[in-house]
Design a protein that fits this description.
Largest sheet: 3 strands, mixed
Order of helices and strands: HEEHHHHEEEEEH
Shape: elongated
Helix content: 40-55%
Number of helices: 6
Number of strands: 7
Structural class: alpha+beta
Radius of gyration: 23 Å
Distance between the termini: 58 Å
C-alpha cells in the first residue's frame, strides 16, 4: 500500500487510504491473536515457549517431524542443570528454616560465592522470583492441592496428570503495557504440567508460598 498513489485531496482518495489502513490493522491484530492463541495452546500442553533460560535449567533442542511428514521443526526442551538446581534447593531450604527470609537467603548465597547464570551476585528480586516459580515444583498431589485450594489460577491438567515427576509452568501472567508489562489478574494465569522434570517437592513449594504470603502481609 505504500507504493499506491492515493490522492488525499479528494474524498474518494482519503476513503481508499483509510480503508486500506483499517484492513491492514485488522490483519495485524488477527496475526497477533493467532500467535497468542498458539502460545497458550503450547503452554497448556506443557511446552516451554522460549525466552531467557531459567536458573536451574539448560535447554536441549531436537528436530521433530511434522505430522504430514513434510519437513522438520526445532523443539526446545528444558533439562535440569544439576549444579544450579542444587543452589535452588538450598534457597528453598534456607528460606524454610526458622527466621529464614529472602534477605537472609541473598546474604548467605553471596557470602558462599553463589552466582547467577550471568556470573553476578544475587539480588532480592531474583531470589524472590525463584522461590515463587512453579517451574521447579514437582507436579505431585501436594502441589495440586496447594494451587487448587490457595490460588485462583486456571489448572488445565486433571489431578491424575500430577505424576510426581514433571515440573509445572505458568503462562499468561503478564500483559503488554506501554514499553513494558504488567501482571494480569491471577484468575487469568494458566498453570500446566510441563514437559520438563521438577526437583522441588510440592509440599516444600507450598510451605514456601504460604510463608512468603505471611511475610508479605507483615
Amino acid at each position: 500500500s505504500i507504493s499506491q498513489n492515493f490522492d488525499t485531496t479528494t474524498p474518494m482518495g482519503r476513503a481508499a487510504m483509510y480503508m486500506t489502513a483499517v484492513f491492514g490493522q485488522l490483519e495485524r491484530e488477527n496475526t497477533a491473536e493467532q500467535v497468542r492463541d498458539n502460545m497458550i495452546y503450547l503452554a497448556e500442553k506443557g511446552r516451554w515457549n522460549g525466552g531467557p533460560i531459567p536458573f536451574g535449567f539448560d535447554t536441549r533442542t531436537e528436530l521433530v517431524e511434522y505430522r504430514n511428514g513434510q519437513g522438520n521443526k526445532k523443539v526446545t526442551y528444558l533439562v535440569e542443570n544439576e549444579e544450579e538446581s542444587k543452589i535452588v534447593k538450598d534457597f528453598f531450604e534456607w528460606y524454610k528454616a526458622p527466621g529464614g527470609s529472602v534477605r537472609s537467603v541473598v546474604a548467605k548465597a553471596n557470602e558462599l560465592g553463589y552466582k547467577t547464570k550471568n556470573g553476578a551476585y544475587w539480588s532480592h528480586n531474583q531470589v524472590s522470583r525463584i522461590l515463587q516459580n512453579p517451574l521447579y515444583c514437582i507436579a505431585d498431589e501436594d502441589a495440586y492441592n496447594y494451587f487448587k485450594n490457595n490460588t485462583e489460577v486456571n489448572i488445565v491438567d486433571d489431578k491424575e496428570s500430577y505424576n510426581g515427576v514433571n515440573g509445572l509452568m505458568y503462562y499468561n501472567r503478564r500483559r503488554p503495557y506501554k514499553k513494558t508489562t504488567r501482571l494480569r489478574d491471577e484468575s487469568e494465569w494458566i498453570l500446566s504440567v510441563g514437559e520438563h522434570k521438577g526437583f522441588i517437592p510440592g509440599k516444600l513449594f507450598a510451605e514456601i508460598q504460604l510463608k512468603l504470603d505471611s511475610n508479605k502481609s507483615k
